[in-house]
Write a structure and sequence with these properties.
Elements (H helix, E strand, L loop, with lengths): L7 E5 L4 H12 L3 E6 L2 H14 L5 E5 L5 H15 L4 E4 L14 H29 L2 E6 L12 H23 L4 E6 L27 H15 L5 H13 L4 E2 L4 H15 L11
Parallel strand pairs: 1-2, 1-4, 2-3, 4-5, 5-6, 6-7
The structure holds nicotinamide-adenine-dinucleotide.
Nicotinamide-adenine-dinucleotide binds next to helix 1.
Length: 283
């Protein structure tokens, strides 16, 4: 979608981190914004920053839990009733939990898959028909490098992000089948500094049950926190790279160059049919 000015963007997870930076990038391009999150205070802070950096841009907010289809459908109706159309959707809200696979609780699985996987599915279900009907649109799905390779302690997160890669690729094929003029971008960053290591701050009470503290779990949580804090690119840089991919209608976005060589190394390991690929020891 070459021309973004005066178009409408919907951003989930718009109250923090990458979602906030997507909002600022879209606002600077003169887009109207619909920001959704479970964190209403975070949404208000994003709006303040948008107003400061792009005065006059329209930004509205709504509390939405993306794991709930009816709330995402409500978001689509809200956006349409306010702005008449939706051109660019960022399925970006995401959470994570660390630990060995056998220790996760049922609630861990339901929470992370609900937000990261079903949140993307519901976004596509609620918004793509609007885009098809209006004859244009673009969907950005925030996957992760974790969608392409697996690290110890990240089973649920990796499973959810592999699914996002797969859903995104399939979406392109289905849109082609339907002869629809809708672009798709699948964003797969490695670690970058945001509040993702504190995802549990917005975990719903009904899915609060997590595994008791264990040395393995603590080790992986500490590694995640360190990796996120020391990310080589900023959320702002990644958001800008993604907006450029939207403007150039590119599907794959790997902001961290090293990830592509790791994906290749993983493909080679599969080709050899030997040991499971470990990105942490791949150099
Ligand atoms: N930070 C990283 O290192 C990294 C790396 C790869 C991919 N990602 C992905 O980037 C995306 C953005 O995460 P971030 O790093 O900005 O983290 P973040 O925690 O700063 O932002 C995530 C936002 O999602 C919101 N959210 C959580 N549950 C929600 C729900 N049920 N409904 C609606 N909103 C919800 C949170 O309130 C928060 O505002 C996520 O999909 C994440 O998996 C992050």
């Amino acid at each position: 979608m070459k021309q973004l000015k005066d178009k409408v963007a919907v951003i989930t997870g718009g109250g923090s981190g990458l979602g906030r930076e997507f909002a600022l990038c879209c606002a600077r391009r003169g887009m109207a914004l619909v920001l959704a999150d479970v964190d209403e205070q975070g949404l208000a802070e994003t709006v303040q920053q948008v107003e400061a950096s792009a005065p006059g841009v329209q930004a509205i907010t709504r509390r939405v839990d993306v794991s709930r289809l009816e709330e995402v459908q409500g978001l689509a109706e809200f956006a349409k009733s306010r702005f008449g159309s939706v051109h660019l959707l960022f399925n970006n809200a995401g959470v994570g939990v660390s630990g060995p696979v056998w220790e996760y609780t049922a609630a861990d699985w339901q929470w992370v898959l609900g937000v990261n996987l079903l949140g993307v599915a519901w976004g596509i279900k609620a918004f793509v028909p609007i885009m098809i009907a209006q004859g244009e649109g673009h969907v950005v799905n925030t996957a992760s490098a974790a969608g392409w390779m697996s690290s110890a302690g990240s089973a649920i997160y990796s499973a959810s992000k592999s699914a996002v890669v797969s859903i995104s690729e399939t979406l392109v094929l289905d849109l082609k089948d339907a002869d629809a003029n809708i672009g798709v971008t699948c964003l797969s960053p490695a670690f970058f500094a945001t509040a993702i290591a504190n995802s549990a701050r917005n975990r719903p009470a009904e899915l609060a049950e997590t595994a008791p503290d264990s040395p393995l779990r603590r080790k992986r949580e500490e590694m995640l926190r360190y990796a996120v804090e020391h990310g080589r690119l900023s959320a702002a840089e990644i958001a800008e790279m993604t907006l450029q991919a939207v403007e150039e209608n590119r599907f794959y976005v790997f902001p961290h160059r090293k990830i592509k060589s790791l994906i290749q190394a993983r493909a080679e390991a599969a080709q050899e049919e030997k040991q499971a690929f470990d990105p942490m020891s791949a150099g």
